[in-house]
Structure formats: structure tokens, C-alpha cells
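Hello K.,

You asked for the raw outputs rather than the summary table, so here they are, unedited. I folded two proteins back to back in the same session to keep the settings identical. This is the first:
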Amino acid sequence: MSNGQDLKKRVENFKGKLNLNKLKKEIEALEAESGKPGFWQDHQAASAKMQKLASFQKEVEEVENLNRLLKEGKEDELEKKLDQLEVKTYLSGKYDRADAILSIHAGQGGVEAMDWAEMLERMYLKYFDKRSWQYEIVDLTPGEEAGIKSVTMKVAGAFVYGYLKHEAGTHRLVRQSPFNADHLRQTSFALIEVLPVLEKIKVKLRDDDVEMQTFRSSGPGGQYVNKVATAVRLKHKSTGLVVTCQSQRHQEQNRKTAMQILQSKLWEKEEKKREEEKQKLKGGRKKAAWGTQIRSYVLHPYKMVKDLRSGYETANAEAVLDGDLDGLVEAEVRSMV
């Protein structure tokens, strides 16, 4: 088979796996919804839906571009584009198209680990920007001296959960410490958790199942949020799960976001009960310490980032920490099929 025939077959295979007809129907449904009166009353929800619409439209444009390149006989360019796009065909899980909730928790290592958690936050935010994903910092707890203890982000776009779910686990950093005069070699850990945003309620909750507390926000949002108790903390009484949201100016918006995250956490808890042995959706909550890492970032005595599951590695650690995660993420997606 000639290269041109092979590429044509790959294009048709990609279109079939992407389910173009279903994608176009979803675009039509979102376009119809966006034209209804009152669509923008909930600005946050409307923005997320418009972001999803733009992502779906971009996917259709990408397929049309493949057809154009095939017709024009631009085989080298077509092959390069196919290599980039075919990774989406590996994302066939039930929630792979969903938005995601990504949390970073500092592990063992004190101030070093908190600084590492903040470095990871910066890395992921830059990665989201590179992919044109919309994101919102829902909750953030700063460290006492430097860095952060934890941060929770809501991320919106096409296939966000599918791309991010394998980032869950312990991330290990080896470097010369910037926090002591001798610049000793230091190992730090941080834990990443990833959950899908569930559009339809999967776990029913009654009002008396959840205890709600309000407090003054310490996060972003300007002076307004610090003057009144807009931040919300929800506690699920029977499981003890606690979720905090302080990103919005209004208490009700924070309550809705916190409830959405709580629903996802409860769903995950039920999934783990049913499929304890697989640990596929989140990678499992393990202690962020020695022996549990999924990826190592070494900055001293040499530079290397290596994923311990796919085996993918790169010596360009600075680029990775600046958000160049495509190679690592795509290698992991492919290796899990």
C-alpha cells in the first residue's frame, strides 16, 4: 500500500473513531441552548458551555483540515497532523470528554514540598494555557513560609479528564535546596488528584446529608470577598469528606461549585468500592512519599523528567516545568490502552 493510500485509511479510521456525526449533534444542541433566553444568567456555567462548543467546533475543523491536506497531496504535513490528533482516539472512557477537577497536595518535605506543589501548580496552569483550556482556581491554601499546601482547580475543554486522569499520583522532585545556605540535595513529593466533572448527578444527596459552613475568603477575588463570608466549606456527614470553595464573589456560586466537587468525590468513592483492584480513574490516593511516585523530576546532579509507567523521559526539564507536557501526557495515554 502506498503512503498516500495508507494516510487515507488512517484519516477514515480517525474520523470513525472520533464519531463525527455525534460531535456535530452535540454542537447543534449547544448552539440551540446558547440561543435561549436566560442562557447567560449563570455566567460561569454559560462560559463553560461556550468553551465546550468552541472545542467541539475546533475538532470538526481539524477533521476538515485533514481532508483538505489529503486532497492537496500534502502527505508530510498530513502525517504530522495525524500523529498529533490520533491520541484522541485512545480517549474512549466514559468520562474522558468531561471537564476535570485537579488538586495538588504538598507531601513529605515541609517547606520544600510546599514550594514543589507551587511549581507544579505553575506547570499545570501553563499547560492549560498552551491547550487553550479554561480554568478556575477553586480553593488554595498557602504555605506558612513559601509555596502552597494545596490547590484545587476546575478545568474545562474537550477531553480534559481523558488527558489529565493519568496525572494522578505522586510526583517526585530532586534538586539542590533553595532554602538552606549549603544548597543540599533535597527530595520533595506532591500528590496530584484528578476527578471528572459530572454534568448529571450520579450520587443523590439530601440537605441533611451535608453540613455547610461559611467563612471569609483568603483567596483571589479582591477586597470584596474578604469583607463578607462568601467562602463555603461542605462536610459530608457520613463519610467525613470535606470540600472548600472560595473563588467566587457570591456565596451561592461557591456553594454550587463545592457541591459539584463533593458529588465527584462521592462518585469516585463508590467507583473505588466497585473496582478497587483497577485504580484506573484516579490512580488511587497514596501517601506522597518514597516508593509511590509515578513521575520523577530531577534537576540535580543532572536534568531528567521520567514517567515511571510509560517510560517516557526527556532531559529538557525546564520546558516540562514551563508546561510542555504533551509528550509525557500523550505517551501515558497511549500506554494505558
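The second followed immediately with the same parameters:
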Amino acid sequence: MSTSSGANGTSRGAPDLPRQWAGAHTLRLVHELNERCIETLARLSTDRSTRTIEIVASSRALWSCLDAGARRRAAECPFLLVDVWFQNVHWWRSVKERRIPHVHSARHRCFPPRAAGTLMRETLMLTWSTARSDRRIAGLLLGLAPAVAEIIAGLGLQDVERIAAKFARQVRPRWEDRPGFWRSLVLAARDGDENTRHEIHLHGLQLLGADLLRDE
């Protein structure tokens, strides 16, 4: 069927195609990074020879039974499940200025060294590129406080690589002090409970919003 052109040169009768949300590509990357984080935590649950964090230690049996589908469902949160002091502007200011941050710099490593190095670099590359292109999405999806997003956006690629290599042990699961959140997330993912997953996502967004408001 032919269409005629209007005075402004556009075709009358042609459907208006929906524009893709600006954060859609970032959200896909968030899900991929979340899945790598969850896969690493699930592997930790089967290794009793090493120290692990409370969110895994308190629910080892649950973590260890997650199959690939359950891990993927757990990863499909509308926010990043990985954190690198994204609410702490003092930590980021210190590492940018090549000073050793004094805040919890000696806390134990969460992930094995190789996994921590990979996860840290991928996390920083994602946050750096997102903060440089859209600070709003960096806050909504990655949980970066505005002042932290500004610092990260101002880094050069060599700075990102340096921080990723030197501070890999600082990459953590978000809300590691909330084992109840993680247990609910993993349980709903294992059972394929969509209603509960939706509620957990809303709860996570509330927590993220509270974190951002606390930084202001």
C-alpha cells in the first residue's frame, strides 16, 4: 500500500516505531555481569575449604543447587548486583588521587583472586562507559552516587585499568549485609516464582533509592 507525504516530508500512514529506551543496552550488560557474579557465588558455596561471606555461608545448600536457568533468572534484576564502593565518594577520590583509601581497605577478599580480577575489571569498564555517556542511567541501573559517577566519568582508561588491577579485592556483592535479600532472590529464582521475583526487584529498587538519597 502506498503512502503520501505530508508537508513536512514525512509519510502519512506510516506507523510510528517505538524508540528503544536509552538504558536497554546497559541493562543487558548488567544482567550479564550479574550472572557472572551469581555463578561465582554459587561455586563458592561448594568449597568449604575457604572462607566465604555470610550471604553464601548461611544458604550453602540453596546456592549449590542452582542450575543455569535459576542463575539466569536471579541475574535478571533491574539493577547491578555488584558493588565497588559506589556510594563512597571518599574512597573513589582517594583511588583517583593514587592514595590508599583508609575505609575498610583491609577487609577480606570476597571472590577468588582470578574471579575478583575479572569481575572488577568488567564492572569498572561498565560503570566508566555508562557514567561518561549517561549519569542518570549510571544512578538508576548501577547505583552510582552522583558524586561517584562524576569521579568515574572523569577517569582515563589507564586510571580504570590501574584501579581494577590494584583494588580487585574491593569488588563485592551489593547488600552483602542483607543475607535475607539474597536468600529470597535465590529462592525465587530456583523456584521460578515470578510474583516473588517482581516483589524482590521492587524491594531492591527501594534499597537502591535509599542508598542514593542517603548520599545526597
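The first helix runs from residue 24 to 44.

Happy to rerun anything if the numbers look odd on your end.

Regards,
P.
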